[in-house]
Specification:
2 copies of one chain form a homodimer. By secondary structure, the first copy, chain A, is an alpha/beta fold. The first copy, chain A, contains 27 helices and 8 strands. The first copy, chain A, folds into 2 domains: 474 residues, Amino acid/polyamine transporter I, CATH 1.20.1740.10; 179 residues, HUPs (Rossmann fold). Chain A is 65% helix and 6% strand. Chains A, B: Pfam families: AA_permease_2.
Chain lengths: 696, 696
């Protein structure tokens, strides 16, 4: 059919393919929330504890600062949420921070965000898994005793799950996330009821302990404020993953942007409520957290020692409110662990997607971009898991130490994305004339400006307060990713330049005639097929070529050749040293020398076998020969396959592989209408999306 | 040119290629001896010790049996040498035991010999290296302390050397071998002079020690004779590698057979002289060897204990004759070690060669057969080294324990080869009429019959006396090789059957028309070249196909396509999910469904890059697509390469790889005239040869 008729057909086809599953794919808010919020919500499991940990350095007395820090975190949370509500409206395509930064601040900024996000994914896995294990451990001591091992095992499990291509399902996410939220709220409510209404006294397991501190006398103003800033940066762990929704807009039901914005707000609200609730309960139940419990946590005046494991705040509070080992306590611990593992899983969904977008922009190997490329996705996933596992092992699955690395990346992308948004509004304000719209834009810009300023400030604070505590590690990681991606992009650009078709090409490149060669080892079906196919091609000249590796076999062959009366001349290349490759290469080169404007077309009969060990027994020399021929100019190499019976199995296997589901489909939402600047091209951020990628 | 003119040309060419290095390749006797005899001669370094070891079980008194055992070994040696002189005459092509057994006793026997030889190679490496280390250790104690480690390191070194394709050189072999022989003879002569002439008393380091034995009272007749048989079997270690020359005939200067036979005789003579000399000196210098020195060797009545290392007889004798640590002592120790390492190296030369012959007979993957197939050779070498290393580690580089495994394989091939020779003569006697020849044949047959009988007897003795001591291990190894090779052969036979061209094929296989497809991602030089080439092929229909992965890019592409006015219709396949493979496969399948008798020819533009990591960045989806297409019937896949500048490097690399020297070239001698039943095909045995393989 003609090219003209393709577009409509394609649109139709495309639609047809998509429409049938639209309903099932688009997420209602109640499902979208758990899908995108498992990461930010789960951070409630560790953020509060981090705050107390840091404060404890100035002694228990410093705990009374925690509400203020909570407030600061809340304000920050609202700022970030408000800012991202602007992103959501401005980039309904689901533009992630990478897109926002790239389009508004240029390639470098975009790449920085991308590096930050990649590091962020790794840490999401490391931190969430570690914290999950710690929470599980509060109910099952055995687990804590083998923390690192369990954490690594969990990573391996998640990896295998995602390698097998398990599809992310909204419902699968909804249940544990809602259980977790419900559990925490029940905890808070029941805590308030018991404490305020029934006036019962609730005491955390660590209530009677004390904390050793060099600064019992209280800290000097400067040192104190530094400490508070550090505590605050730790608290900022609660914000990780907030941006997720801004990448998922196309996955929402219509009106997409509005729904996304609402969900974002809900998410923020729930998160801060839980965060504050937990901190409040922690204070009222007298939870004690020490940075180094082994020596700083005093039990009846004695240091706790190394065999003491410090349970997460949330589980200590649960122990106080519900009673240690009670059903609701266990339930909450399980839900917390589960939601944390889900949070880790989001990284497995996001990483390959961001990868595919970076590949689209040629910062990563192209094949990451094409779909159903299991290999590429797998590599991404294994890379992610490997890095996370290394971190977990190095930091002994200690969430506290891992969080020091975590927050930097998050705020790098926050800041750049918000700054980008400011630019975005400025640009639009230049052209926009509608007063209402302008007013709206001004408001949005104001919000984003404040967001950029605030997150930027936090970033600086984090860098100052956390650098020596490990933030430098993630900076190194970012630099690494940045360097590699720039190198890859440079390579692609160079190649593109080298390959660019100038106008003369078609003339210079076009050769005059084709000389075809069919490689023959013996006369069997594959050879005959290759000969038949070659004949069909009506090239200017056709000959069969055999390499005389064994004198007798060659004599044999020539005899058969004449008997069968095959109408193609058989040329025999002498190979006294039993080489196959060189004689052919040399013969081809000679042909080229004789008529330089000719093209030599080499037909290689190949068997297609089923099993890898069969592969070892066949085609090896053919493969090697091909490899060599590809380096010889003016040659094309044609494989004429002959499918052996055993190949059936392999065909099926290959098919299965091609139909493999890449992780992270749901959150991407359906592909967007073709013609628009492909969301695939531009969408990105922690969870990529709109990439028009979906399983059938 | 026509087929007819090829044969003479090929002969000429072949000759031309060979003649230029004939001189440098053919070995004069004085060089052939060290090349082929390093293995059998070196066994003098451990064989005598083994005899004493076993005898010591019956106490020192039993040592006086050793001369008789030496005599037995000598007789056996002469028998074997005499027998192989017949082989050499009967199979000037350098027929190894494998050929002799296969042609005269059939496939099974041949395969058994082959398995035996393969095991034999592994053990040659293990034993020679271990013994080499022990001899070196007698001069440098440090080495003995880290025996296993040093041995493994040596194996690794040899392996790397052979992987790099170092060429075996006659001279390189000559020097250390002659040093060793000279050293041993000097030892004997000087020993005799000092002892008999000057009447000095020479005492070995262990002269004053005694040996504990449960049988001090002497053994019962039966037990004793069993012990003597065991001692004899151990002594037979001196015969390992004798057959080597019989494979190397074509490497000799003319008259090949005669020279080979002479060399064989010389070798036997030297070997037995050294063997007996060493044993005699060992007795007269009072060397004491115990099977378990730690507990059975008594120093002033006390067991030697575990930190005692028992030095090889040859070095103890040297210590007695030359004086411990004297220059000649060190010299001999070094020469011994060196010649032993050379002996190990012969296995590295023989293994891949036997492999290539077995491959020719389709018992091993075909590619082992083709020359310059570095990959295949490397695999063989690594396999050999790996197996040897495992043995060395398992047996702690203890040559004594390893030798228990060694001798079985050797005598399996001796026996079968000799039996084969008997058959050979019988066959010829049936036809031969010339009386002189017949007499000669009768003599030869008599010799071989005796050889077969004697070696067979020894084989039984070895099996009985050594089975529990480890011989079973090598039997298991042989069974393993046998099974694998049979399986491979079966596979090849099945495939051959499936592929066999019946007369109808050419009709059924021949399709009607070709529909060509050029895969286009963007318009650049590779695409244009692919288009140009495809056009040349004048197939019945030609279209360019692109997969619309990104809507914009596609629009772009179509625009350019029209601008350039490329005369080929551009078909756009919709791929809303960014797959590349599936749409193409499905499209091809559709074409096939529509006209089942058509062939679809798919042209894939490929870049050829230089470095492996560049490869990662390109062609991945092309490769995968090719893989899938090969499973689709009625399709041929054409790669149209575009060589990037960086590919130059890789081309050179590939060339180098193709010019790599496979080990074991010298001993193979030059290729034999084509037309003859290819010696390549049939020659074999410990060092394979005449395979018509040689470096340029």
């Amino acid at each position: 059919m003609s090219r003209m008729t393709d577009v409509p057909k394609r649109l139709l086809l495309g639609r047809a393919l998509r429409s049938d599953r639209l309903s099932e794919t688009l997420l209602p808010k109640r499902v979208a929330l758990p899908v995108f919020a498992s990461d930010p919500l789960s951070s409630v499991a560790y953020a509060p504890g981090e705050v107390l940990l840091v404060l404890s350095v100035a002694g228990v007395s410093a705990y009374h600062f925690s509400p203020w820090i909570a407030v600061a975190v809340v304000v920050l949370m609202f700022t970030v949420v408000a800012s991202y509500r602007q992103n959501v409206r401005a980039y309904p395509s689901g533009g992630g921070d990478y897109e926002v930064a790239t389009t508004n601040l240029g390639r470098r900024a975009g790449l920085t965000v991308a590096s930050a996000l990649l590091v962020d994914y790794v840490l999401t896995v490391a931190v969430s898994i570690s914290s999950g294990v710690e929470n599980l451990g509060s109910a099952v001591p055995f687990i804590v005793e083998h923390k690192t091992l369990v954490a690594v095992v969990m990573i391996v499990l998640l990896t295998l799950m995602n390698l097998r291509g398990v599809r992310e399902s909204g419902k699968l996410f909804a249940i544990p996330t809602y259980c977790f939220v419900a559990g925490v709220f029940a905890l808070i409510v029941w805590g308030v009821v018991r404490g305020a209404v029934l006036g019962e006294e609730m005491r955390a397991p660590t209530a009677d302990y004390d904390i050793a501190s060099e600064h019992t006398g209280g800290l000097s103003g400067l040192a104190l404020s530094f400490l508070l800033l550090r505590a605050f940066s730790s608290g900022c762990a609660a914000l990780t993953g907030v941006e997720a929704i801004s990448n998922g807009v196309p996955a929402f039901r219509k009106p997409k942007s509005k729904n996304a914005a609402t969900t974002l707000a809900m998410m923020g609200l729930i998160a801060v409520t839980m965060f504050c609730g937990v901190i409040a309960l922690a204070l009222s139940t007298g939870v004690k957290m020490a940075e180094d419990p082994a020596k700083d946590l005093l039990i009846n005046g004695q240091p706790a020692g190394h065999d003491y494991t410090q349970n997460p705040v949330i589980s200590q509070v649960a122990a106080a409110v519900f009673g240690d080992g009670s059903i609701p306590f266990i339930f909450l611990a399980a839900a917390t662990a589960l939601v944390l593992f889900l949070a880790a899983n989001t990284a497995y969904n996001g990483f390959p997607l961001l990868g595919s977008i970076l590949a689209q922009d040629r910062y990563l190997p192209r094949q990451l971009h094409t779909r159903g490329d299991r290999l590429a996705f797998s590599n991404g996933i294994v890379l992610l898991a490997g890095a996370a596992a290394i971190l977990v092992v190095v930091y002994e699955a200690d969430s506290t130490r891992l969080i020091q690395l975590y927050i930097v990346g998050v705020f790098v992308s926050f800041t750049l994305s918000q700054t980008g948004m400011v630019r975005h509004w400025n640009r639009h304000l230049r052209t926009e004339r509608d007063q209402a719209k302008r007013r709206h834009m001004h408001r949005s810009r104001a919000i984003n400006t404040f967001g950029a300023f605030f997150t930027g400030l936090v970033l600086i604070v984090v860098l100052i307060t956390k650098f020596s505590h490990g933030a430098w590690v993630s900076l190194v990681g970012m630099a690494l990713f940045y360097a590699v991606m720039t190198a890859i992009r440079r390579h692609y650009d160079l190649v593109a330049e080298e390959l660019a078709a100038d106008d003369t090409d078609e003339k210079t490149v076009r050769p005059s005639r084709v000389h075809s060669i069919v490689l023959v080892s013996k006369i069997h079906k594959p050879t005959l097929r290759a000969l038949a196919y070659a004949r069909l091609m009506r090239s200017d000249s056709l000959e069969a070529v055999t390499i005389s590796v064994d004198a007798d076999e060659t004599v044999q062959l020539r005899k058969q050749w004449e008997e069968r009366g095959i109408g193609v001349p058989l040329k025999i290349l002498d190979s006294p040293y039993r080489e196959v490759t060189r004689p052919v290469i040399e013969y081809v080169k000679r042909l080229r020398r004789e008529n330089p404007r000719d093209v030599v077309s080499v037909y290689i009969p190949e068997y297609v076998v089923g099993r890898w060990y069969e592969q070892l027994l066949h085609n090896q020399s053919a493969l090697r020969l091909k490899g060599r021929l590809l380096y010889t100019p003016g040659v094309m190499v044609t494989s004429v396959p002959w499918q052996l019976e055993s190949s059936e199995a392999a065909r099926k296997r290959a098919k299965r592989r091609a139909e493999w589901n890449a992780p992270g489909s749901v959150r991407r939402g359906p592909a967007i209408r073709p013609g628009a600047k492909s969301a695939a091209g531009m969408s990105s951020g922690k969870d990529g999306e709109g990439s028009g990628q979906r399983e059938r």
